[in-house]
Design goal:
- With 280 residues, this protein is α+β, with helices and mostly antiparallel strands.
- Helices cover 44% and strands 13% of the residues.
- It is built from ten helices and eight strands.
- The chain has helices at 2-13, 17-27, 32-39, 43-50, 63-73, 78-95, 114-138, 143-157, 216-221, 258-266, and strands at residues 181-185, 189-194, 200-206, 211-213, 223-226, 232-236, 239-240, 251-255.
Amino acid sequence: MADEEVAAQGELAITRTGDKLRLAREKAGLSLADVATRTRITQRHLEAIEKSDFTELPGRTYVTGFARAYARAVDLPEAEIGAGIRRELEEDAYGSRPLYEAYEPTDPARLPTARLTWTLVIVALILVSAYGVWRFLSVEPDEALVAAQNQAADASEAPATKVAAPAPAKAVATIAANAPVVLTGISEVWIGFDDAKGKTENWRTLDAGETYEVPPAYIEQFTLRTSIPQALKVTVGGRDVGPIGPADTLVKGISLKPADLVARAEGSPAAPAAAPRTRG
């Protein structure tokens, strides 16, 4: 009877989603390394999820996705685990808000004297005035305006109208359709591969310096997403195509086809895909 009461109390004490995942893993006889192999998520991230320590994860945008993948690996309902993680994230965000601090008047003895205040104001005015004089003396006539005036004068004296030659079109470098696409972690970065409906089917974490050559099947079937573009280097046939998005911004729907990546690097529209894709 006592053992049953202890077991019941232990079950009641399990309230965190991470505890449920850990118990399911242990019941299935799996180690964290086994789950990492199944989900392609690093062990330290899985351990952080078990402890509900979300500060150890690369970005809260993907915490729910990691937990759902963990749930699939140990045969727990994804929707239930995902909902539990979202609740814990909200509670964690609420608990991390700064506490209200009442305003306390500043000690008058620590305030600057009136003489010091006026001295600082005068020094600031002198600096501003000096900067204005320097700007005035350093400004030169607008060369563009002078050039335009000279061109107008030449045109009025010329007997015939000159037609400007068209600017040469910007050439876009060609690249082999089967050129290898390699992703390299500049620092730790999470990457996902989305299907045609925008659903992330596969994901993995790259450590700093770790490289991953995208399989040809992925290039044709998936697009790339990440929330830390500045931490990811993309090369096509050994050529760096530059950043795929602004820093610390979720980017998705990035075509992995070599021609499209090179077109992005050249600042030209990406080549049309064989079939339209629905972006998530």
